Amino acid sequence: MEEQKTSAGQGLGIAGLVIGIMAVILALIPCIGWIAIIPGVIALALSLVAFSQANKGNGSKGVIIGALVVSIIATSIGLIQIVFFAAVTTEGGNIMNKIEKVAKEFEDEFEGEYGKDFEEAMDDVEESMKKIGDDLEETMEKLEEDMEEVDDRTKELSDEEKAGKMGKAAGKAVKEFVKEMKDTADTK
What we know:
The structure is a single chain. It is built from five helices and no strands. The protein is mostly helical. It folds into two domains: 10-90; 116-187.
């Protein structure tokens, strides 16, 4: 005669399955999936108690085994995330140390090559750029004056003749600017 299956452990098995499914969903969320360990362990405990009750009371074990599997998966994923983030944190510190080492090597190499540190060199570049900007502004002002002067002298000329004269004045100003730039570069 076949033994009759009872409902022993079914309530706890279903509870373990529901909590286990929620834990799996939580475990699959990046960066906070490690929190799934808590409901995963609770689901695992409920499922183990349900399995024990089903064994003693000759209950059906299908749902309970499913709950065990799901809770083990959720807890495992949560633990994997903890291990992953611990490794990233440790390696992150190593990467920062490597970046600082490369930066220090760059500074030392730069100072050895140019005789001054990088910040001093950048200050020199900034000063040179300011001087170039001032020279450019002065040249542009001179160009405007020259163009106004040409415009005053060419009131009775045709547009083509005016354009030619203005072009010559602009060319002269550009030549002076280029000469000034070369003089600035030669003094460095």
